[in-house]
Structure formats: C-alpha cells, structure tokens
Amino acid sequence: APRDLPETLVDKLWAIADRHSGKVPLHARLFAQWMHFVFPSECPYPHAVEDPAVLRPSHWSGQRRATATDEERERCISESAQQPEAALGEPLLSQWDDLEVLLLEDL
Question: How many whole angstroms separate alpha carbon 77 and alpha carbon 18?
Fold first, then answer.
C-alpha cells in the first residue's frame, strides 16, 4: 500500500545503499530492519546473533533444549522492567542498530 515515509527512514535506506556501493542487499540485516520500521506489523525485527553457530542447523539438532526455563523467563522479565522507557517525543529510530549481517554469498 502506498504510504508517506518519514524522511529519516528514506535517509536510512540511502545510508544502507551508500554502505554497499550504491546497492541495497535485500537479504541483509539492515534492509530487514528498515522493512520492520516501515511495516512493523508485517516484518519482524531482525535481531543480531552473538554466536554465528546458531545460524547452522546442526546447532539446533540433537538434544538441545529450545525452550526457556521458568528462571530464564523471570530474569528476562525483570531485566526488561529495569530498562528506561523512551521519552514520549523520542523518535522510534532511536532503536536503530547499524550492525550489518550479510549472507556468505553476498560478501
């Protein structure tokens, strides 16, 4: 659907292109993040992984547990409650993260 994008979002898309020699890699993390800010209900936020091993299927096969324990859930809830809330007038793009992740074939 057509929409008017804030200039800051348009600038972010140009910045992504500038970073990649004028092209926007469609399967990269920054473009996915941009899509999330444009379509927040349709596109999930692309969280960056700390350990690239989690991107391999072998990491998730076998006896590994894929759910959080009650203690882990409680810790997550208490940590998020301690985070400062953004001011009402603060732009949403304050959550923007410039970390890029490319697929190997895009390097």
Answer: 38
> Which whole-number Å values give the CA distances from 96 to 45, 55, 58, 85, 101, in the listed order?
10, 22, 31, 15, 14
Alpha-carbon distance 104 to 90, whole Å?
A: 36
Q: Is 106 helix (H, G, I), strand (E, B) or coil?
A: helix
Alpha carbon distances (Å) from 50 to 9, 20, 24, 40, 89 = 26, 23, 23, 23, 31
Mean pLDDT by 10 residues, the chain (107 residues): 81 94 91 89 83 66 70 84 51 75 58
